[in-house]
Amino acid sequence: MPRRALENIVPSTPEDAFRRLLDLLLAKDMDAVADLWAEDGTAEFPFATGSSPRRLTGREQIRSYLAALPELMDVREIPAVTVHPMERPDTAVVEFTGNGRTVRTGEPYRLDYIVVITVQDGLITRYRDYWSPLAVAEAAGTLPELLDSLRSAAAG
Question: Whole-prediction pTM value?
Answer without folding.
Answer: 0.84
